[in-house]
Structure formats: structure tokens, C-alpha cells
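dude i think i finally got it to work??
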Amino acid sequence: MTDINQRIAARLRALRQAQGWSLDRAAQATGVSKAMLGQIERGESSPTVATLWKIAAGFHVSFSGLLEETPADDGALLRSSVGGDWPTDDGSIQVRTLFPFDPALGSEFLVVELQPGACHQSVPHAAGVTEHVIPLNGTLEICVDGIWQSVACGEGLRFAADRPHAYRNGGSAPLLFHNLITYRGK
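look at this
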């Protein structure tokens, strides 16, 4: 079992125990099957981005909170490099942590790569969660409340992420974007 899978397994188990939830109850809250949750807790499965988002949303925690240690905040500068690579089942999207969730700031900062022609439906987050999306190359299409909007490199879009939303790359090259997610009340 890899170090990151061990952290995810321990974090999932701790979250479930803190809630007093059985695997059945956790499956209901997350939309992830009881069998898959058990495999993740035992370190027998490496969850995809979609599965991790479902677990995070079901437990009302940040995405990176399942993956990364919270950085120590000693008031000094914090330098980060891109962390773990979390692809979807089909490899159409990869999410990497640049700055993991910081409780003092209530945010996490991700780098996302979306393959050409890919469309990724995101799980709605908890109430009060906001996403700030900034394409680093090309043009990203983002759908919020059923309305698609184009966001070009050098632009950004902020939206309430507690509703269904999607990302689409209509270009012919992989598209990179930054995603700053803020969790109000965390």
C-alpha cells in the first residue's frame, strides 16, 4: 500500500468513526458503494478523482484533506510543489494539489489538467463552497446551473460550487487550469 493510499485509508476510517457511521451509512452519504469504501479503507483500492470528490462531499471535507497533511503554519513563507496525481477512470482529467487545505484560510489550491475533448461533471460541494477557476492555456468551458461559459487564458471565473458544474476542453491540446476552492465556515 502506498503512503498516499495509507493516508486516505486512515483519513476515511477516522472520518467515518468521528461521525459514528457504518460503511452502509457512509455509502449513503457519499454515493460510493459500501464495497468500494471498504476496499479504500483496507488500502486495496486506489480511488479516482471522482470517487475522492464524492467522499469529500459526503463527509463535508476538502478534497486535499483526504490526501495531504495540513501544512504547518508558522507565519513564515510556505512554498509548495505539485503533489499527488489523481486521474479519473478514463484519464480525461488529472487533479494535483498545489497547496492542500489550510483551515486558517479555509481553502485549497489545485492544478487541474483536462484532456482534449474531455468533459468532466463535478460533484456539487457543500453549501458555501466557492471555486475560482483560472485557465493557464487555451480556453476552458465551464457549466454552472446548465449554462456554459468560455473562460480564456488570462481570465478567471468564480462561482458557487454547491450545485452541479462541469468543465470541458473543446481544444486539441491538454488544458491546464488553477482551481482555488474556498470552504466557508471550515
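The chain has four helices and ten strands.
im so relieved honestly
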